[in-house]
Amino acid sequence: MKRDDDSLDPQDWKAFREQAHRVLDDCIDRLEHAREHPWRPVPTEVRDALSLGDANDGVGTDVVAREMVELILPYATGNTHPRWFGWVHGTGLVSGLLSEMVAATMNSNCGGRDHGAAYVEREVISWCKRVFDFPETASGVLVAGTSQATVVALAVARQKALGDASRKQGICHDAPLTAYAVMGVHNAIVKALELLGLGSEALRRVPADSQTGGMNLIELRKSIAADRAHGKRPFCIIGTAGSVDSGAYDDLDALATICAEEKLWLHVDGAFGAWTKIAEDPWNLLSRGIERADSLATDFHKWMYVQYDCGLVLIRDEKDHRAAFAARPAYLAGQAQGVGGGEPWFCDYGTDLSRGFRALKVWTALRCYGRTALGRAITRNCELARLMGDYVSEAEELRLVLPVQSNLCCFSVVDDEHANAWNTQIAQELQMQGEAVFSTTKINGLTVMRAAITNHRTRPEDIRIAIDAVRTAFIRLKSSPSPHDGAG
Ligand SMILES: *Cc1c(COP(=O)(O)O)cnc(C)c1O
Hints:
14 helices; 7-stranded mixed β-sheet; 4-stranded antiparallel β-sheet; globular; single chain; alpha/beta
């Protein structure tokens, strides 16, 4: 396209407005009919059509608007669909469609300075402090997700354990730091320990209590004592509020008491499960004790239904948070007034200096729906997981592998010989057919089908359809030649 000037802005704003309105209509159509759009594979022609080559010459917004709608929009992950239960994926909200347009228009840099986006983020963090009963002295920052929030939180815990000099001198020391978490802890914790130079072997995986799935507290105390006796330096207990495999919760109150006695940091991984805090009885009791954590990592993009990506780290004491991250070279000096004012700056609470306006999609979700309705949606997800558990228990071909505690349901086909292979194959076939998305995981050595319901679009009939689809697939597969493990 030939241009009269070198501007990257439209030459014809009226034409651009019409293109943009068409794209918005296509997006709204897609969401209105989300029920008709499960995951589907990206055809080879489409992948080829995405090629950028060397991208020397642009084609203009009109062509790109059409390409996005035809080549990209139809091939989403699929988690906008009501029968998506795989891994832990949030659904997204229409409030997010509005907020992303506004955020893109503003193009705010939320690392610091004095502008509207910073006030929105502060409101979101204040609200979270109130929800999780953290003290006024707490601080927080929005990050990409719980993985990043974990790095920030454990960096603060490490700094607190090693003292301020470690920021200059690094973490060389005689007594290696050790941390404690339940056996089924999420790998984000392991990655954070690796990244922070403590190494994955710093993590002690404490066996789970067979009833609750939370850490066995006697084993935990034994492990801490053994490490102390061997010259290690225990520094942190990591409580899990909603484990990725089973939705189990640690007894956070008990962990907080042990941390107080042993002078350890309590970090809580509440990526999705922290939000039972706003659910109705009895599910809100699961996250009891979370208010005693020294740090909390959680996501808005999972169980708060907010668009990707958006996580949160809260630190109980802002002084600790700043001690690990605050730094202002001359080119970032704050000003008394003007856009360079507006202390405190979020760049002093994590690793990112330039940051997008994640807070707006959270703020709009809270304003549009409110805590009560979001809490009710979380409650409903737990009820649906329980319903799925009931359907599984009633089906003679299926069995529940673990009791349903929150929003997770793990189950298996009944087959002594080939259950691993059947479960794997059924999960994949239902994905390919667009019927329902289950993921798989291993529980006590068995590959099981797993549903994590963080989906505000799911209705009871979706649970029925999904479980019936599993049964039908199993019956059909069993009557065909022997199974193969499609895991590859
Ligand atoms: C998803 C998850 C994480 C990682 O969070 P991201 O937002 O994907 O980075 C950590 N812990 C648990 C329990 C999770 O479910």
